[in-house]
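Researcher: We're teaching a course module on how sequence relates to structure. For the next exercise, students receive a sequence and then see the predicted structure as tokens, so they can try to spot secondary structure elements on their own. Here is the exercise chain.
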Amino acid sequence: MKKFFLSVLSVLLILSFASCGPETDVEDPSAPVVEDQYDNDSILDAIDEARDFAIEADAENLAPSTLEALDEKYDELYERAEAEENIVKEGKDLADAYLALGTYLKALEAKELIEETGMQDTALDMYNQGCTALDELEEMYDEGNATPAQLLAKATTSKACFDAVLNTIYKKLSTQARQSALEAKKDADSVKAGVAMKSEYNEAVNTFKKGDSYYTRQQSYDAYKCYVEAADTFDELFDEVSEKREAAERAIEEAKQKVRESSEFAEAADEQAPITEAMNGIEDEDAVLLEEEEYDDPSEAEADLPETVQEPDTMDIGDAK
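Model: And here is the predicted structure for the students to work with:
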């Protein structure tokens, strides 16, 4: 974290809402006045949603001083709204400040995810654009003279760039992970895991299909996680079912050995004292004792997953999530 998180002063300067920043750079003179679009209730709702977004981005742990300063303004505006004072303009700025903070933290998280892969070169120009926007944003926080709207715009640019890089990286990784999941499924099918552990098998299949859904919606990071999870589950099913099959085969072989030993003993006894007439409790050799059971074809329990997935349309920066 940069030093601005240690300085509440810069946030207080932002929340003073004085005309110290170049507001003409971000405001359209022809746009309707904000008071004509919102009332206190709708602005308070917007503030709550924006604050929830910042909390979701872990602002309580990653930026406690900044969040505390914003919350002080939050409490003040609520009191003024209860007194029926118009807080729309300041409320809009506070909502933007919360959103800027949350977006900044999410941009940092995306940057970290990129660097963990070590694949920045996959979309290096876009990565560098994100880093430049992030540096500029932190300078704006340090200087303390930017409006909340300007902070939000710069944070959004940085996050959009990093998200686009992540999408490119994880599109490649998810393609590899998907193939691994298909191979793992084939191994699971080879031991009839769909019959032996139907519930777990179906769960892995559904996770794989969810990955395909994410992939076609350009959410490649989520797709990657689903494919990895599905592959891990198929691998576990293969190992567990294989172990159970081996144990069952050992038990069958032991039973066969006991039958052979009993048969040999019976043959020896028959030679010494043969039975020459029918006896109560002993059936004829060709007697049918049980009706023959019919079993479902195990192959019908195997899920049919496509070898390829539909490619998503090319994503613009504005579409990054």
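Model: If you want an answer key for the exercise: The CA atoms of residues 167 and 257 lie 59 Å apart. Residues 220-272 form the longest helix (53 residues).
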